[in-house]
Write a structure and sequence with these properties.
Spore Coat Polysaccharide Biosynthesis Protein SpsA, Chain A; ten-stranded mixed β-sheet; two-stranded antiparallel sheet; disordered N terminus; transmembrane helix; transmembrane; Glycosyltransferase; Mannan_Polymerase_Subunit; Nucleotide-diphossugar_trans
Length: 371
């Protein structure tokens, strides 16, 4: 018998399909009508709320009786933050800061060997938004994951902070020869100063006692460098940065000075500065601009005392231990000509004018990577 025109036969629905559809409807209703805040884990709430650099935001506030509790108020008494010649005995917190354009495995291996308690060390990094910076970021994250998540408890650092620069790098290449061309120094070091300041101001916490600046290409230091430098009780202290290399003449490994930014001023350098425009800078280590300063790089002695000090007017940033109070007093890295100095050398000048005389240790060496 023929069906009437226009009638439609309905296919019986599959029970499984109906069940899935009903579950989906319930999920959508819960999503639209449920609580606005996410169900964060208790551990995540505790971490966010306790970290001094990450105050709790709305999702992390605890509710009492259906009402959101007021955000907590943290109190810090800086008079209780000690900075002593015996930081280990006083459990003083150290902030280790590294601007990083390239990742050197030897750098990471070296900081892993530091015998200062890692639970008292916070690491801070800033990396440029370049292809090399992206590569360095990936390698850095691999080491961090291995150390912080998989490594033994004693190797894990108190916390690790990573920043990405929000400015374009002035130099495309980070090759050593390109970096050290005299014509590139002002723009290069201005960018480095901005990176250092961003890293410093974003990471310096109220419980920090010491700041250890360590460049990413410094691959060898004594494991006791923090204790060794802190025992001098100086506001700004620089070890001598050298470089190991293969000497073709002697057919043996040798070493040579590397960082020439640790220096004592000279009358000739001061006279050169007086003749310069306020926007010009003096740079060290170039024959085109002979300053005749006393360079700590050449002051090391074979039989010299390891902890012998010398006052400095300029410092480099390869390795530098700074009391946190020096930075809190306002000493930063000028990205502009400051008394014709810039970046770390300008920092030394600023520290000195704030009453913190920089010093160096000519016989205490750290070593730079040899490209």
């Amino acid at each position: 018998m023929a069906r009437p025109m226009g009638s439609v036969r309905l296919k019986k629905a599959n029970p499984v399909t109906l069940a899935i559809g009903a579950a989906l409807c319930l999920f959508i209703l819960y999503f639209l009508l449920g609580p606005a805040t996410s169900d964060f884990s208790a551990s995540r709430k505790a971490t966010a709320a306790s970290h001094p650099l990450s105050p709790p935001t709305s999702p992390f506030r605890k509710s009492t009786g259906g009402k959101l509790a007021a955000p907590p108020v943290a109190h810090y008494n800086l008079n209780n933050v000690t900075t002593t010649p015996t930081p280990l005995e006083n459990s003083e917190n150290v902030l280790l800061l590294t601007p990083m354009a390239r990742f050197y495995p030897e750098y990471w291996d070296n900081i892993m060997r530091l015998d200062y308690p890692h639970e008292l060390i916070t690491l801070g990094f800033i990396l440029p938004k370049t292809r090399e910076g992206n590569d360095a970021m990936r390698e850095l994250q691999k080491r961090i994951a291995k150390t912080q998540q998989q490594g033994p408890e004693k190797d894990r650092f108190k916390s690790i902070i990573i920043l990405r620069e929000d400015i374009d790098p002035p130099l495309v290449s980070q090759d050593e020869k390109e970096r050290h061309k005299m014509k590139n120094q002002k723009v290069r070091r201005s960018a480095m100063a901005k990176a250092r300041n961003s890293l410093l101001f974003s990471t310096l916490g109220p419980s920090t006692s010491w700041v250890l600046w360590l460049d990413a290409d410094v691959v060898e230091t004594p494991p006791t460098i923090i204790q060794d430098l802190a025992q001098h009780d100086q506001g700004v202290l620089a070890p001598n940065c050298y470089q190991r290399f293969w000497n073709e003449e002697t057919k043996a490994m040798d070493e040579r000075p590397y960082d020439f930014n640790n220096w004592q001023d000279s009358p000739i350098a001061l006279e050169l500065a007086q003749k310069m425009s306020p926007d010009d800078i003096l740079v060290e280590g170039y024959s085109e601009m002979a300053t005749y300063r006393t360079l700590m790089a050449y002051m090391a002695q074979e039989d010299g005392r390891l902890h012998e000090e010398m006052p400095l007017d300029g410092v480099g940033g390869a390795a530098l231990l700074v009391k946190a109070d020096v930075h809190r007093d306002g000493a930063m890295f000028p990205a502009f000509a400051f008394y014709n100095l810039i970046e770390t050398e300008g920092f030394a000048k600023m520290s000195k004018r704030l009453g913190w005389q920089p010093f160096g240790l000519p016989n205490y060496k750290v070593y730079h990577y040899n490209e």
